[in-house]
Amino acid sequence: MSEPGIELREIVVRRGDTIALDNVSVLFPAGKTTVILGPAGCGKSTLLKIAAGIVLPDSGKVFVEGKNLNAMSERENHTFRRDSGFIFQDSALWSNSTIRQNLSLPLRFHYPTLPDDEIARRVGAIVKRIGFHENLDHRPAESSSGERKIISFLRALVMNPSLLYMDEPLTGIDHQTADRMTELIRELKREARTVIMVTHDPVLTAQLADHLVVLDGGRLLESGPLAQVVKSTRTEVIAILSRVLSEASTFDGSILDLLDQGFGK
């Protein structure tokens, strides 16, 4: 995707009497990996779904490459959906379909004339890429929650999208598979895909984030390049980053320099 990526302007989302997102304006730069941080219930997943066009805000606008998402033509909207992949926190698989059918669904929807053998080839290639060895003719209910998360990950990648949304992609995954998935996300980063991710994983944040977005109580506290955000002097931002990035320093020495430079300095 070319600049400017995904831009949200004055986004407000209400849940009854509660404001889930309070006048949030933020830019997710094209070709970069942005991590959304904040305490549980602060609006991270809602913000991610707004940016993906899955949830509509009560007010505010979403721009994709400078175009208003809600004002796009049918063809432009189709292109946006085709070039996007979403990894849901709860996997969001079709329970009455097999794993193979779940993985094939985006291809069949966006390319209805694609031959069955080509669909099988693409599904097989993405399954092999991550080393997923489960029986593809099983239904999701026969898989563990971690395996269902992997299937959701594979489904998001089968279209080879330029824009990826990830909601806690490594939650419930065993360490070996998490390492493979992390390496795959790292490959996407090297390929300059646009990745927007919600994660509590300190190592994933430390190793892969180009930009950070920090939320609390539905409000945007800080956003920008990682090296800039860790220098924030705001008490709330320092507290959130301390909880996440300080844990990563145990595993990733490169983050120590950022911590030394940042946190209010």
Describe this structure in words.
With 265 residues, this protein is of the alpha/beta class. The protein has helices spanning 44-52, 74-82, 99-110, 116-130, 145-157, 175-190, 202-208, 226-229, 235-248, 254-261, and strands at residues 6-15, 18-28, 33-37, 59-64, 67-68, 84-87, 163-167, 194-198, 211-216, 219-225. The chain folds into two domains: 6-83 and 161-261, Rossmann fold (3-Layer(aba) Sandwich), CATH 3.40.50.300; 98-155, no CATH class. The protein is built from ten helices and ten strands. The longest helix has 16 residues, at 175-190. Residues 249-254 have low confidence and may be disordered.
List the helices and strands and how they pair.
Layout: E1 6-15, E2 18-28, E3 33-37, H1 44-52, E4 59-64, E5 67-68, H2 74-82, E6 84-87, H3 99-110, H4 116-130, H5 145-157, E7 163-167, H6 175-190, E8 194-198, H7 202-208, E9 211-216, E10 219-225, H8 226-229, H9 235-248, H10 254-261
Parallel strand pairs: 3-8, 3-9, 6-7, 7-8
Antiparallel strand pairs: 1-2, 1-4, 4-5, 9-10
Descriptive labels:
single chain; 265 residues; 6-stranded mixed beta sheet; Rossmann fold; 10 helices; alpha/beta; 2 domains
Summarize the structure.
The chain has 265 residues and is of the alpha/beta class. It contains ten helices and ten strands.
Percent of sequence in beta strands: 15-25%
What is the residue-averaged pLDDT?
Answer: 85
- Low-confidence regions: 249-254
CATH-defined fold name of the largest domain: Rossmann fold
- Structurally, how many domains make up the residues? 2
CATH-scheme architecture of the largest domain:
3-Layer(aba) Sandwich
- Rg computed from alpha carbons, rounded to a whole number of angstroms: 19 Å
